Amino acid sequence: xxxxxxxxxxxxxxxxxxxxxxxxxxxxxxxxxxxxxxxxxxxxxxxxxxxxxxxxxxxxxxxxxxxxxxxxxxxxxxxxxxxxxxxxxxxxxxxxxxxxxxxxxxxxxxxxxxxxxxxxxxxxxxxxxxxxxxxxxxxxxxxxxxxxxxxxxxxxxxxxxxxxxxxxxxxxxxxxxxxxxxxxx
Length: 185
Description:
Elements: E1 9-13, E2 26-33, E3 36-41, E4 45-49, H1 50-56, H2 64-68, E5 70-73, E6 77-87, E7 95-98, E8 101-104, H3 107-114, E9 121-132, H4 135-141, E10 145-149, H5 152-157, H6 160-170
Parallel strand pairs: 5-9
Antiparallel strand pairs: 1-2, 1-10, 2-3, 3-9, 4-5, 6-8, 6-9, 7-8
C-alpha cells in the first residue's frame, strides 16, 4: 500500500547507489501512483545538442543558443523517446501536468521551440526512469534515495553539475558527510 506520493519530489541518489545509471543523479518524479513511478534525471547532460536532435527529427532550428543546449539523459528506459520538462504547463498535445510544470512528449512543443514560441524554462531529455509498483518505496527504504519536495529553480536556474548538491542543501545535508554505506539508526 502506497503511503507517500513522491510526485513533484526530487530523488537524490545516495553515494552508495549501485546502479551506474543513477550514480549522483537528481531525478524529478513526474508521476507516482499505485502502478509505479516515472521520473526524469535532471542533472546529466549528454554530448548530444538540441541542434543535433532537431536535425534528427527534421525540425529546422535556426536559434544558435538553443541549438547548442544539451539534451539530457532522462533515464535508462526507452532512450529513443524524447521528453520535455517545462514551465509553464501550456497546451501541448501530450502533456502530463505536474503542478506548475509539464512533461510533454509530443512533437508540437519541439516545433514551437524551434520558432521561439516554446516554453522559456525547459529541459529536453531522452529516456526516463521508471519503477514498478512498490519498487521506488523499496529503494527508498533501503537508503537508495533521499527525497525532498522539488524546487523548480534547481532544474531551470542552477547549472546541471550543481543540482545534486543544491537538492541536498534543501535538506540541510552536506554531501561530504554522506556515507557510501547504507544503514539504519
